Structure formats: structure tokens, C-alpha cells
Amino acid sequence: MQQEQLFERASGPRIAIVAGEASGDLLGASLVAAIKRRLPDAQFAGIAGPQMQAEGVKSICAMERLSVMGYVEVLKHLPSLLRLRRDLKKRLLRERPDVFIGVDAPDFNFSIEKTMRSAGIPSLHYISPSIWAWRPKRINKIRKSSSEVLCVFPFEKPIYDRAGLKASYVGHPVADEMPVVVKQHEVRELIGVGAQQKVLAFLPGSRQSEVARHAELFIQTAKMICATWPTAQILVPLVTRETRVLFENAIYAHKAQDLPIRMMFGHAQEAMQAADAILVASGTATLEAMLAKRPMVVTYKLSPTTYRMAKRKMLLPYVSLPNVLAGEFIVPEFIQDDATPENLYQALRNALEDRTYAAKLEARFTELHQSLKQNAAERAADAVLAWIRR
Known about the structure:
alpha/beta
């Protein structure tokens, strides 16, 4: 049986695009929207989440299939991922888009980018892999795969320049989207949170595997917070039905039904802007927490095997994006064995009670926000259109 065509029309630029998780879906959606403003007849197809699909991207499967984290976890899903990638390569080679864009998901996308580039199809990678944090030798793979890397952090482009690779700094779309000055009282009124209430935002991750690993840790921390502040409100925004069910089941499993936890479907940015402090799993959400200008505590847990393998390859003493951007520890991190309810509670208590610390942190976060605010989607669209016009 013949497969359905990826692109429905022969006319108009045909752009293949693949994103692998919620943060990539957000980036991809803003880029697609910016391209469509310049090229209204452009067609988009590949692997996309709900936000990219809302912008008109045709997806051959659920993006969740790519959202696998860690060596052990990836091995379990490897045969399925390899089949999916082979199928997509064949379809793209048959239909020959004008350009391929890999949005993050480097371990999945680099192979496709290399195949497309070898076939004469320009391949852009949107968001540099963390070669500055770990696995620096990946720059050799990028050299063979990507026609151009679109960097979202200012310190990344010089790394590629030194290696002789084409790269552009475009800034970060989330920095463009979120306000530089947060009006917390307005956000609280919008989402129905009391102006004088103690509010915390808990973000255990966007992947199911992350929520499964962090749910108990976050719930036990919530119990300690609420023992100190009985009237506190804890906001838990989750992006999918599956992750929400995982967290809700954990609430019942750990007898925490009476805690003042308010589950939210999405609206993570509003939850963070409304909060007095944030507990967040390391990842793109730490950037959003920084842009919300709120004190945060960063944590993360991996399978023991994955953690041991990753730790040996780390180049920096910190993992969260605020610390990486600042070049120093400005927010506390509790990773793996240090990720205990007691440690998280004490760090959150410090953040809630030390107003001088919160004010200094807000000023530093504002400086970092300004450096990332570059009209990223339009600049990234410029780079894509330059390749199409060639």
C-alpha cells in the first residue's frame, strides 16, 4: 500500500521539519509562523507536536514517540525509533523538500540532516546541542550533518566559528514571548490566585519518564512546604494528559489528596510568573523560570546507569540554563542523590524568606533576558529563506 504524500501540492516551498519534545514544538511553531508570514504558500511536514500542527505542520506520527531521555530509556525504544527514522528518510528523499529543519532532538535529527545534505537538500539544525556542557566531540558529527546551526544562546556561535562551521545567533523565542517586566498581580488575577497568598510553581518535567521519576520527590517536598505554610497554593502545570495522570496517580499513591495542589493543563509560564518560588526539573523550563524572574530551585533525577555515564562527560559544574548563561551558580541545583525532599524544602524556604536574594536574582535575570531577546523567530526565518532562495 502506497504511503500518503507528505506534501500535498507541487507548488510553493516545501519545508520538512522535525521536533522531538514540548520545548522544540514551541520553537518550531514560532519559526513556522514566521516563515508563513513571508511565504504564505509554504508547506510544512515531518514530526510535530500540537503547537506546530496548529500552525499547519503535517505530522506523520505523535511527537511523544521521540521524547525519550537517557541511555537506558533510549535503548528500550531504539528499534521503533530507528524504523521511524528510516521511513521518514525514504519519504523525504522521494519527495525532496526544499529544506530540512531539525528542531533540537539531535540524536534523532542529525542522521536525517546528514542524509538530506548528502542528497543536496540544505539541512538546518535549530538549537545547538549542548556541546559546551557535555559530549564536545559532537561538533564533528554536526560538521558532517548540518548546513547551518541556528544558535539560541550568545556564547554558542563563537564555538562554531572557531570550528569553521556556519552558525547564526538568533536569540531565544521564549525570551521574545515573555515580558521583561512581569506584572505578578495581573497574572495572579488572570489565573485566580490570591494577591497575598504564598504561591509555588512545581514543574516536574515535560516527558512522561521525567514526571514518573520526579513525582514522589515533588509531592514529599510539597508536604513539607505546606506544613510550614498551610495556606500556600502549589501550581503544577503539565503539558499532556499522560503526564497529568501520572502526577495525579502519585498524589493518591502518597496520600497527598489534601494538599493544596492545583493541577493546570499547560499555562506553565503563567504559573511561574504568579509564583513566589519555583521548583523545576532541569531543562528548558529553567529558562522559562528565569524569564519569569522568580527564585527557583533546580533538580533532576536519572536512572543510576544513565547518570553515571552522563556525569563522566560533563564539562561544566552546573546543569541548569540560568547558571550556564550566568557562568556561575546563581540558582541552587540538586541532582540525583542530592535531590531529596529535605534539600529541596530548605532551598525553597530560603528563596521564599530572603527578599534581598530574590531582588538581586530578579535584576540578574532581567539582564540575561535582555541578552536573549533578539526577535528570534524572524531571524531564524531569515536563515531558512536564504537557503530556500539558493
